[in-house]
Design brief:
elongated, mainly alpha, single chain
Length: 202
């Protein structure tokens, strides 16, 4: 009986230590969670002046676009300069456009500036050029001021797969500049692989 009685306080002490360690562990986990949440709400770009802050936001948006497109888009919205904001939008769309250009083209339409909106569609067309050049050329028609350049590069990329079909598309273009740049794209790209064939198409 004496042995049992003397053992009881030890058991109580051991139980108190376990409770204390459990509470300590719980507090540490809670602290890590709160710290993580708090750090995520802090804008790391706030410490910079306006110009540098915009560049910082743009780089952050590019960095996270593939994993969290919605958050990247919201980061771009924080940029005050119109041109930089639209460039940022273009960058985040391009970041995910390689995998699904047709799905993300809707975001190109949301870009205000003609330059970056056209650039956005141009990039989507290029992503499509190796898989479906008919759709790629259709996408080029949305590239606004970049339409002739888009035809040039898409024709070049697609000609490496099927130059004859691409040539037929180029010949159907009503706009003379677009038609010429389209032909030039075929010759330019093919010429890097086979000079005689490139020259023939030129």
């Amino acid at each position: 009986m004496l042995i049992i009685c003397s053992f009881m306080p030890f058991k109580k002490e051991k139980s108190k230590i376990r409770i204390f360690l459990f509470i300590l562990l719980f507090v540490m986990i809670l602290f890590i969670i709160i710290k993580g949440l708090f750090l995520n709400t802090i804008d790391p770009c706030n410490k910079f002046s306006e110009d540098y802050r915009s560049t910082c936001l743009q780089l952050n948006a590019q960095k996270i676009a593939v994993n969290d497109f919605d958050r990247a888009w919201k980061i771009c919205k924080q940029i005050n300069q119109d041109s930089l904001r639209d460039e940022c939008y273009n960058d985040v769309v391009v970041a995910i456009g390689k995998e699904k250009p047709e799905d993300v083209q809707q975001y190109c339409r949301k870009i205000n500036s003609e330059k970056w909106r056209g650039e956005c569609f141009f990039n989507m067309a290029l992503f499509l050029s190796k898989t479906n050049f008919t759709k790629a050329f259709a996408m080029c028609n949305k590239a606004e001021i970049f339409i002739p350049f888009c035809y040039h590069d898409v024709a070049g990329e697609a000609s490496l797969i099927n130059a004859t079909n691409v040539l037929n598309i180029c010949e159907k273009q009503a706009d003379n500049l677009t038609k010429r740049t389209c032909f030039h794209g075929i010759g330019n790209y093919l010429g890097k692989v086979e000079v005689k064939e490139g020259a023939y198409y030129c």
